């Protein structure tokens, strides 16, 4: 399917939702909920993600009239969901604009001199390790490495510079490496 | 003893992301050719990046759509328990109430199914609780557990308050069924709490408690939705909600 025919289909679907056609919004939900729930789980934690998913789709339902087909409906929803996740984190006191572009010396020192230590990374181990990151680092890691956003876009969303986004991403990766290496060591010891 | 490499490691991240200029890339690659530590770090960063990109979507719980659809039916801008000025409860055939009650009994059975304690990927990722003894300290896990418990208990208390405020809208048969369901779940919560007190580090006990609390929230949310539908005289909608609650178990 080409981009323009997809957008055309999305506009038609949005129109059916606005007209209250049976099953139309259900279709929007089924197509997008897993990705948006994954985003919410990873950004705000599973405990709040269910409430947030509800807020995302209720907001989308309310604002669907504003969707004009400039992008795919999934992209429009993803942006809306990201903003709601960020609002949620801000309401919990996370201040993205106070993040620095400096790296902690101890992380760099800890990561140095150890060569390759990870091997194949298990997805569940990575999900667990992400939970332990600071909200700022985790947000940037999720948006960049999991969702594939560019630093420029992340910078705009979070109100930070590209440089800060890059350095926080690197910090997140080093912390994850450290945590995952710790898990591997723990497993080897328990054998 | 070899001196640790002091190169700017953030350039390795940017190399993995393809963000270095050609000149920078040449310079970093020349360094990599003679530094085993940086080669190892780059391999790990690339591995992390690839695994992160492969993390897929997470299926939301089945009841999530039911709650969203229920709120949309009630008017998405209104809270679930928004007061409705006029009560328009119509007389209803007894069989319909019995049908609602029968569907809701399945919710209670579901509470025990949930207590099997199967650990799903998302439940593991949820709080890092499954991480105890590995990456997080015992203290951090205990704090996180306390916060999670507080979150659930607050939601339960709020929904109980709403449900009790005006449960006279419900037919006595349905109200009694819901009450029995909650009773079953309360037993599950109490048993899980006891198990957790006996073995505070037990992941199955913790998961079981959270599953039971989530189940209670779900039953209470269903109750609130039912009350609203019935107060609006929408018995068909109420039947659909009850049927949906039965299916999700």
Largest sheet of chain A: none
What is the count of β-strands of chain A?
Answer: 0
| Fourth CATH level, the homologous superfamily of the largest domain in chain A | Winged helix-like DNA-binding domain superfamily/Winged helix DNA-binding domain
Q: For the CA atoms, what is the radius of gyration of chain A?
A: 19 Å
Shape of chain A: elongated
Number of spatially distinct domains of chain B: 2
CATH C-level of the largest domain in chain A: Mainly Alpha
Shape label of chain B: elongated
How many β-strand stretches of chain B?
A: 0
Mean of the pLDDT scores of chain B?
Answer: 68
What's the tally of helices of chain A?
9
**Topology as H/E string of chain A?**
HHHHHHHHH
In angstroms, what separates the terminal alpha carbons of chain A? Answer: 51 Å
Largest sheet of chain B: none
Low-confidence stretches of chain B: 76-99, 105-136
| Helix percent band of chain A | over 70%
Radius of gyration of chain B (Å)? 26 Å
The helix fraction of chain B, in percent, is over 70%
Explain how this protein is built.
The complex is a heterodimer of chains A (191) and B (249). Chain A has 191 residues and is mostly helical. Chain A has two domains: 89 residues, RNA polymerase sigma factor, region 2, helix turn helix motif (Rna Polymerase Sigma Factor, Chain: A, Orthogonal Bundle); 93 residues, Arc Repressor Mutant, subunit A, CATH 1.10.10. Helix content of chain A is 73%, strand content 0%. Chain A contains nine helices and no strands. In chain A, helix 2 crosses helix 7 and helix 7 packs across helix 9. The longest helix of chain A has 29 residues. The N and C termini of chain A lie far apart (51 Å). Chain B is mostly helical and 249 residues long. Chain B has two domains: 44 residues, no CATH class; 186 residues, no CATH class. Helix content of chain B is 71%, strand content 0%. The longest helix of chain B has 29 residues. Chain B is elongated and about 80 Å long. The N and C termini of chain B lie far apart (62 Å). About 22% of the residues of chain B have low confidence. Chains A and B meet through helix 2, helix 3, helix 5, helix 6 and helix 7 of A and helix 1, helix 3, helix 4, helix 6 and helix 7 of B.
């Amino acid at each position: 399917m080409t981009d323009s025919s997809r957008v055309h289909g999305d506009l038609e679907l949005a129109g059916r939702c606005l007209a209250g056609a049976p099953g139309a919004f259900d279709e929007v939900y089924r197509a997008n909920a897993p990705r948006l729930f994954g985003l919410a789980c990873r950004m705000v934690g599973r405990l709040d993600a269910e409430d947030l998913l509800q807020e995302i789709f209720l907001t989308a339902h309310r604002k669907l009239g504003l969707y004009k087909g400039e992008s795919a409906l999934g992209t429009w929803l993803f942006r809306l969901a990201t903003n709601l996740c960020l609002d949620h984190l801000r309401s919990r006191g996370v201040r993205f604009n106070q993040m620095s572009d400096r790296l902690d010396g101890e992380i760099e020192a800890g990561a140095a001199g150890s060569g390759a230590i990870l091997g194949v990374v298990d997805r569940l181990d990575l999900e667990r390790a992400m939970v332990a990151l600071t909200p700022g680092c985790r947000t940037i890691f999720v948006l960049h490495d999991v969702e594939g956003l560019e630093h420029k876009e992340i910078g705009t969303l979070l109100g930070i510079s590209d440089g800060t986004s890059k350095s926080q991403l690197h910090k997140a990766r080093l912390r994850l490496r450290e945590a995952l290496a710790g898990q591997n060591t723990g497993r080897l010891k328990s054998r | 003893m070899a001196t640790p490499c002091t190169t700017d490691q953030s350039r390795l991240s940017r190399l993995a992301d393809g963000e270095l200029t050609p000149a920078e890339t040449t310079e970093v690659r020349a360094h990599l050719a003679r530094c085993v530590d940086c080669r190892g770090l780059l391999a790990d960063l690339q591995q992390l990046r690839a695994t992160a990109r492969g993390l897929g979507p997470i299926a939301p719980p089945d009841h999530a759509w039911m709650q969203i659809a229920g709120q949309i039916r009630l008017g998405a801008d209104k809270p679930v328990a928004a007061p409705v000025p006029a009560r328009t409860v119509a007389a209803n055939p007894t069989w319909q109430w019995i049908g609602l009650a029968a569907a809701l009994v399945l919710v209670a059975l579901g509470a025990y199914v949930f207590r099997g304690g199967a650990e799903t990927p998302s439940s593991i990722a949820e709080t890092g609780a499954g991480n105890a003894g590995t990456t997080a300290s015992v203290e951090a896990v205990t704090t996180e557990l306390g916060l999670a418990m507080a979150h659930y208990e607050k939601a339960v208390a709020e929904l109980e308050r709403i449900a009790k405020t005006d449960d006279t809208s419900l037919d006595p048969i349905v109200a009694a069924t819901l009450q029995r369901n909650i009773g079953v779940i309360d037993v599950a919560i109490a048993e899980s709490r006891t198990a957790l007190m006996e073995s505070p580090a037990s992941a199955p006990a913790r998961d079981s408690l959270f599953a039971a609390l989530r189940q209670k929230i779900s039953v209470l949310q269903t109750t609130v939705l039912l009350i609203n539908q019935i107060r609006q005289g929408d018995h068909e909608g109420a039947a659909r909600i009850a049927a949906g609650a039965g299916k999700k178990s």
